[in-house]
Specification:
alpha/beta; Rossmann fold; five-stranded antiparallel β-sheet; single chain; 388 residues
């Protein structure tokens, strides 16, 4: 069944020609009124189409608050001995892809209780494209109004502190390419009567082949792959706007050697609805009913690392989410609560889900970058940047 966005896309194609998959996905997810994320303030959780770490309760935010407080200490010159240095004039905490502000609320709740000096220094900036989600942030963060500095669709011009993005890059629109005997082709979305169909055409930009070459990808004939120029551009932009501090990226992904290999030769572009990946006999699920479903693809961690380097960032480490959270004390929280109350049982279940192998714990990766910062090793990377 066509979605309300389908006829608009068909007309756009008739007017201007076939769309790249990146252009199609951008419209399907972010069209100002009919896009998937534009039509609701929250898409995850039990009633949504997918789960994130935030949907398990405040624990994820509590653990991130530990890391952010340590980062703030590093920026303010607090040495390992505990001797205080000069406090910064501000500690910007910038969440990109912030949705309705639930994760920021969990972080601030924990910072207020357990890291009061950090909390008093915080100036929170939320970055979110969806007007509906932005409209909900003031209510979600009402008790933290004194530190809530801004809510916009774009990153602040200059940041001293931390920029973090939880499951943002996998939702940025990728180009879809396929290698043929004749060379690299790009998949486009075209109109055929009243239907949206895919067609292979020459690459829309030389940047696609340049990107694959830079990360060392060698596609065999018949292999499909996503090239997310937007994700790399976002990291460069974030890095350039970070005057001093840290960039933390949490997302589904692999290094280029894995992502661009036979194990992923059909690509990773997929769509979720009702917590299940959709597969359609009549064509790719992501092409169907644009605006009605989530569309996502795995992130190329090698490309993100290179983009960070381009922006003057230093990669401190990469870890899977399980080892990152264990470094922040998750195991101690599990061991320290043996209550049998329903609340305690639910909390322990959430903790275990955050680190579950094969689930959120191993499929989500954490990349930590720094700029103009020297200091002690970070707790979240204390397991040596292990990735399972």
């Amino acid at each position: 069944m066509p979605s309300p966005l389908t006829p608009l896309l068909l007309q756009r194609i008739r007017d201007t020609g076939p769309l790249t998959v990146a252009e199609f996905v951008d419209a399907a997810l972010y069209h100002e009124t009919l896009g998937y994320y534009a039509r609701a303030g929250q898409r995850s959780g039990r009633e949504g189409d997918f789960f994130t770490s935030v949907d398990l309760g405040p624990l994820f935010g509590e653990l991130l608050a530990i890391q952010f407080a340590e980062m703030r200490e590093t920026l303010s010159g607090v040495a390992a001995s505990g001797r205080p240095g000069p406090d910064p004039t501000r500690f910007d905490l910038v969440e990109a892809g912030a949705g309705n502000g639930r994760l920021a609320r969990d972080v601030l709740d924990a910072a207020e209780r357990h890291h009061p000096e950090c909390y008093r220094a915080v100036r929170l900036h939320l970055v979110e494209r969806s007007p509906q989600a932005r409209a909900a942030q003031e209510t979600v963060l009402k008790r933290h109004a004194s530190v809530f500095a801004s809510s916009t669709a774009a990153l602040p011009e200059s940041v001293t502190g931390v920029i973090y993005a939880n499951e943002l890059l996998d939702a940025l629109p990728p180009h879809l390419v396929v290698m043929r005997e004749q060379g690299l082709h790009e998949v486009h979305v075209d109109a055929e009567g009243g239907r949206l169909v895919t067609r292979e055409r020459p690459p829309s930009s030389p940047r696609l082949a340049d990107y694959l070459g830079a990360v060392g990808a060698r596609l065999e004939p018949g292999w499909f792959a996503e090239v997310n120029l937007g994700a790399a551009d976002w990291v460069r932009r974030a890095g350039r706007r970070l005057a001093r501090g840290f960039l933390v990226v949490i997302d589904y992904g692999h290094d280029a050697a894995t992502l661009y290999s036979a194990s992923h030769a059909t690509g990773t572009l997929t769509t979720y609805r009702g917590h299940a990946a959709e597969r359609r006999e009549e064509g790719p699920g992501w092409l169907m009913e644009p605006g009605e479903r989530d569309i996502t693809s795995h992130v190329d961690l090698t490309g993100i690392a290179l983009a960070g380097r381009d922006a003057g960032l230093r990669l401190l480490g990469v870890a899977d989410q399980a080892h990152f959270l264990l470094g922040l004390g998750l195991a101690e929280r599990l061991a320290g609560d043996d209550s049998v109350s329903p609340h305690a049982l639910a909390r322990r279940l959430a903790l275990k889900t955050l680190v579950m192998p094969g689930g959120l714990g191993s499929t989500l990766k954490v990349m930590v970058f720094a700029k103009s910062v020297d200091g002690r090793p970070l707790r979240g990377l204390s397991f040596g940047g292990r990735v399972t």
